[in-house]
Amino acid sequence: MNDLAKIAEIVDEGARTASAIAQFSTEKPLSIDEAYAVQALSMQRRYARGEKRVGIKMGFTSRAKMIQMGVHDLIWGRLTNTMRVEDGGIISLANYIHPRVEPEIAFLMKTDLSGDVTPAEALAAVEAIAPAMEIIDSRYDNFKFDLGDVVADNSSSSGFVLGNWFPKETDFRNLGIVMTVNGHAAEVGSTAAILGDPIRSLVSAARVAASAGEKLYAGDIVLAGSATAAIALAPGQSIETQFQSLGNVGFKVGV
Fold this sequence. Notes:
Blueprint: H1 4-17, H2 32-48, E1 53-59, H3 63-69, E2 75-80, E3 84-85, E4 90-91, E5 100-109, H4 119-124, E6 126-136, H5 147-152, E7 157-162, E8 166-167, E9 176-181, E10 184-190, H6 198-211, E11 221-223, E12 231-232, E13 238-243, E14 247-253
Parallel strand pairs: 1-11, 3-7, 4-14
Antiparallel strand pairs: 1-2, 5-6, 5-11, 5-12, 6-7, 6-8, 9-10, 9-13, 13-14
């Protein structure tokens, strides 16, 4: 299948109805350019239904994540207002296929940022930082995909939870992280696992957004990428991540 608009429709319907779809790579793998074109087309369908772009997420930015998914390329996707989950809120598994969660650092942009920038320039454009978690949910059967598949599927982005915002001067480069399930530690790591320094992820975000004809806008949220491997979600779980110096962020899993 090489009709990118049709592929975008299939991806969009899978996300909209929480229905698993077949991997496109089993028939004809998508090139990375085709995959990003599909992502953009599928997101345009969502915008047409009233969703608003509120930022972007970076993916495969930690060694743990690369190992878990068996890939080696940094990827990105768009965030919309409907993906946001209230801190301490409850999600319904009916809205997902096989969701997982991972801890992240979030940046709130103060000014626009685009193209090739230095870490200092990227940080200067930041308003605040926050502890965060991203809910990922590949729409593909059995959570299996190649690089083109996952990029076309908005890089698996499905939801995000933000904790309290802190001044950007707060040190976020090597903070201990403990993600717990029902009070028991499930993943332990450090924000340094995000490309060695999360600000590098923001630098990359500015570059990749520009490559797609977009920019990071003032007010945008940028999720820097996972600091640990993701954990699968199941009914009845209480998920909380404790960040050194930044407090906690969490949510509950309903049916």
